[in-house]
Specification:
This protein has 21 helices and no strands. It has 464 residues and is mainly alpha-helical. It folds into 3 domains: 195 residues, Growth Hormone, Chain: A (Up-down Bundle); 48 residues; 204 residues, Growth Hormone, Chain: A. The radius of gyration is 21 Å and the shape is globular.
Length: 464
């Protein structure tokens, strides 16, 4: 058999490799589909059990817990082995899903979302980390592509599952629908994965305290959204920033860094790229409120609203495909034009989303454009991080991309919740409060990609 045939799609998808591929893809799919299910059914959830003021917390807590789960996964492999750690993540995710399906009130739902996020973060991290442990090196690229492709599957399956059950008045069944997938995944994990990586003598050297400070900063900012006082909201933002400063100082002095050198400086090429990753990710978090805005302001069904909200993610994927492989001559223009497109699209949503007379086609185009702008520069930001990092810290730099992206999404959801509540999302609420919230959310978030434009211009001129 030739080396090319050993590295083909057929080699990846046949026999035991095929079952292992299905297991790893299933880990990402369970997490990703759940993200879109929850976003789609949330308007129906708050209509049934209340908790409108906690709307954005569903995303904030889920993503914050995902950060902790993804950071703990490598330790689990070293202490308990690959299979046991994978199964632990799956059990935690299932327990959180059951709690969400049974939740009588919003606090119970949020409790379930924390456990879903913790288990989902473990599944997400483990799926990628397992590739080099179970496949030959020639199959790594195809395995990564297959696993990453599950996010595309999720943009189709998640809104469909959530939308159909929400329209039928049975939003809880959208959570139950994930459990059969988890059952199949459990069988695959038990039969196909071994205890690779187990080392009970391993030292617990992960930066858990610094990771906890990172997550706590998001929760402090989110807590501020629950207060009507501008002083309390400002105090929450300042408190979150102070926790970040504390974490950054600890990381600079630590013998094992959590983030690579230069990440906190906008004068450093690496800092500029991480800042762009964060700002562009924050801009996309406005999709959290899209189903609610579309259902209340534009009379869209849960199914249609779910698919329209997924257009941001679809645009992100499409933009990445269009821009990947472009030569260095055009990369500089993409790093500037991407943020410009996202900023203009968000400005358009701030103008048109509050108006009930706006055509759905126009709104769909703007939602797609927000993600497309991010995708145009995304592949080049990721490769730029690797190139800009010190050679001895490239592994840290690449691993930190996911952490920083998740942090930005959690922080963005927190700020979106604060902006919406301050604009009247819960008081006066109703149609008028939702209209004001739509204007505030998109009006505030225009500044995230807008700030990235200057950074993109600087990044385009970096010489490594």
């Amino acid at each position: 058999m030739t080396s090319s045939s050993r590295a083909s799609w057929g080699a990846l998808l046949r026999g035991r490799n095929g079952l292992r591929s299905l297991a790893l893809a299933g880990g990402v799919a369970a997490h990703a589909i759940n993200v879109f299910i929850a976003t789609t059914i949330l308007p129906s959830v708050v209509q049934d059990i209340g908790g409108l003021s906690w709307y954005a917390w569903n995303t904030t807590l889920f993503v914050a817990a995902s950060i902790m789960g993804s950071s703990c996964a490598p330790l689990g492999i070293r202490w308990y082995g690959l299979r046991r750690t994978f199964l632990l993540g799956l059990v935690v995710f299932v327990c959180g899903t059951v709690i969400c399906g049974l939740a009588p009130t919003m606090p119970w739902l949020l409790f379930g979302r924390v456990w879903q996020g913790l288990g989902g973060g473990m599944l997400l991290s483990l799926s990628y980390a397992t590739v080099p442990l179970v496949f030959d090196e020639g199959l790594w690229a195809r395995a990564m592509a297959l696993i990453s492709g599950m996010w595309g599957v999720a943009t189709l399956a998640g809104p469909a599952i959530g939308g159909l059950f929400a329209e039928a008045g049975h939003w809880r069944w959208a959570f139950w629908a994930v459990l059969p997938v988890c059952g199949v995944l459990f069988i695959l994990l038990v039969t196909q994965l071994g205890p690779q990586g187990r080392d009970r003598g391993a030292r617990l050297d992960a930066p858990l305290l610094r990771m906890s400070l990172l997550v706590s900063s998001v929760l402090v900012v989110s807590s501020a959204s629950l207060f009507s006082s501008w002083f309390a909201q400002a105090a929450g933002v300042v408190g979150g920033l102070l926790l970040i400063v504390w974490m950054a100082r600890m990381d600079r002095r630590a013998p094992q860094r959590f983030l690579p050198q230069g990440v906190w400086s906008l004068t450093h090429p690496l800092g500029r790229r991480y800042a762009m990753i964060g700002l562009l990710s924050i801009g996309v978090t406005t999709e959290v409120f899209v189903p609610y805005f579309l259902q209340v302001l534009h009379a869209q069904s849960p199914l249609h609203a779910g698919y329209l909200s997924a257009l941001m993610s679809a645009g992100w994927t499409l933009g990445s495909l269009v821009s990947s492989g472009r030569g260095s001559a055009i990369v500089g223009r993409l790093l500037v034009s991407g943020p410009i497109l996202s900023a203009l699209a968000l400005a358009g949503l701030a103008w048109f989303m509050p108006s009930p007379d706006t055509s759905v086609f126009l709104l769909a185009s703007l939602l797609l454009a927000v993600g497309f702008g991010v995708g145009l520069c995304w592949p080049h930001l990721l490769t730029g991080v690797f190139r800009a990092a010190p050679r001895e810290q490239r592994n840290i730099a690449s691993a930190a991309i996911t952490t920083m992206q998740l942090y930005a999404i959690a922080l963005g959801a927190s700020v979106a919740g604060m902006a919406a509540n301050a604009a009247g999302f819960t008081e006066p609420g109703g149609w008028q409060g939702t209209r004001q919230a739509a204007w505030a959310v998109y009006g505030v978030f225009v500044f995230a990609p807008a700030l990235a434009i200057r950074l993109g211009w600087r990044a385009a001129r970096d010489d490594f």
